[in-house]
Amino acid sequence: xxxxxxxxxxxxxxxxxxxxxxxLEYRGYDSAGIAIADEEGEVRVxxxxxxxxxxxxxxxxxxxxxxxxxGHTRWATHGRPSELNAHPHRAGRVIVAHNGIIENYLExxxxxxxxxxxxxxxxxxxxxxxxxxxxxxxxDQSLHxxxxxxxxxxxxxxxxxxxxxxxxDELVVARYASPMVVAHGDNCAYAASDVPAVLDHTRKFxxxxxxxxxxxxxxxxxxxxxxxxxxxxxxxxxxxDPVSAEKQGYKHFMLKEIHEQPxxxxxxxxxxxxxxxxxxxxxxxxxxxxxxxxxxxIVFLACGTSYFAAQIAKYMIEEVARISVETDxxxxxxxxxxxxxxxxxxxAISQSGETADTLAAIREAGxxxxxxxxxxxxxxxxxxxxxxxxxxxxxxxxxxxxxxxAFTTQLAAVGMLAIKLGRLNGTLxxxxxxxxxxxxxxxxxELETMLQDTxxxxxxxxxxxxxxxxxxLGRGNQYPIAMEGALKLKEISYIHAEGYAAxxxxxxxxxxxxxxxxxxxxxxxxxxxxKTASNLEEVKxxxxxxxxxxxxxxxxxxxxxxxxxxxxxxxxxxxxxVSVLAVQLLAYHIADxxxxxxxxxxxxxxxxxxx
Length: 611
Ligand code: M6R
Known about the structure:
Strand 16 and strand 17 (about 280) form a beta hairpin. The protein is an alpha/beta fold. Helix 3 crosses helix 4 (about 125-135) and helix 9 packs parallel to helix 13 (about 405-425). About 55% of the residues are buried. An 8-stranded antiparallel β-sheet has the order 3-2-4-1-10-9-11-15, with helices on one face. A 7-stranded antiparallel β-sheet has the order 5-6-7-8-12-13-14. Strands 19-18-20-21-22 form a 5-stranded parallel β-sheet, with helices on both faces. It has 3 domains: about 5-245, Glutamine Phosphoribosylpyrophosphate, subunit 1, domain 1 (4-Layer Sandwich); about 255-450, Rossmann fold; about 455-595, Rossmann fold, CATH 3.40.50.10490. The mean pLDDT is about 95. Bound molecules: 5-amino-5-deoxy-1-O-phosphono-D-mannitol. 5-amino-5-deoxy-1-O-phosphono-D-mannitol binds next to helix 9.
């Protein structure tokens, strides 16, 4: 995910900006840049694709310095990783670094181009620089005034840092749905997307609120609320050491990423869904009604957690769009003789976009004549580049080896895809589409509520972490969540776990049930609730210990279970997006209680680029 660092003061700041960017490296990035204004207001920009080493090398070859500047690490979302797309971006007098997504950038770009603006990048951010420059029409205005006027035209999320050639002693920042902090120093001020960027220089931070803007100068920091009026924001002293600051105070990256899920799902839906119109806009996939009507089937190809997202896609798409869906483990698909035709749509799901088996399988499907799409998190990764269309999840870099936010954003993506296919196929009317879109939009708030108090999971971890094995049961769209729960538990706690279709229990696993085998039953109120609840009673009758994950207020689960984890009531379509949070937290707290290496479990790699 992108990172921003900014400085204004009395000292030369090039080294401070570069070291600030180093502190943000853990967030992942694919290009970086700095911009610095000298005392006369001349601004120099240096950018490079790749790692910071490349930027430092480019800077060393042609160094410059000054007392105000911006630095940025970019994780590509709009436009591939390249020097031209790297931030900061300049338009006329204005230089901008931006984190977030400008939803209406295409519309704004068209208007700006018609008025004569020339664009040098493919990014959404450059639009912001042009808009601010255009708004700064009057000499009585300040850079801050122009920035606020430009922000009125922008839809989306942003953490912005802006400097100018006109006013080289002021740095303007803005925040909406993307973090931004400002910090006080001696005769200087700092701006950053994350605390670690400037923690070596100051401990006095102000956390901006959504809608805030701030003007930073040698004299200090003035903050303005969303109505443009000055506001007082509390100055907080941060005592974190740099490593816990990278984790934003969380004990592990995995826990931080679990807590990020509401925001990352919102980012994934952003600009793509309209509840009012009952529409999903996935223009990047080039799907139309004729193409969809001609499909013989859809085949999903994936590995690990991404494979479970594919299995949920099957439930969603078959239910909503009535198109036959197959799911294949990529490692199996590539070595059998699969039935694929030019009427097949093959879709790879991959966080990294580099998984060797998934890549080989989607290539194979393409060679057999299928149209290929991908649902990928990493922009310009190999799978993204090699498929006919790509739907990016906006999970941001996932550092914990155990996939969490990548999975829930994949589910948001396949949910949108199901609605899109249903509309194109004529199986979903506008009213029904509206309801499903609202359900997707409801998820982040429900997850936020669930994340407010997780103490129950710590207690469960204390009671159950000595078990040698766990069984997870689920039916319908909770069956893949049962398997994902089991995978999460085994990979980070090293406890054996199995995920099973609840209806299959009596065909074998029931023999395992005794006091020593905790059984996690995913049983929210849905179309298969009665069936799952009967399975739960069967486990109870055999003396099994039950951890039930069900809908809030379900007395039946209370009566038959040792522990009940409550889920908010949401439509069945999106139940996997909330129940998975419970199994993630369960696995995390058990592993943490056991003291395993949660972020880098033994024998595992984040990206499996070999067979
Ligand atoms: O990058 P991908 O989504 O293609 O990765 C697939 C699997 O390797 C990955 O999901 C793996 O199973 C995770 N460790 C699960 O937490």
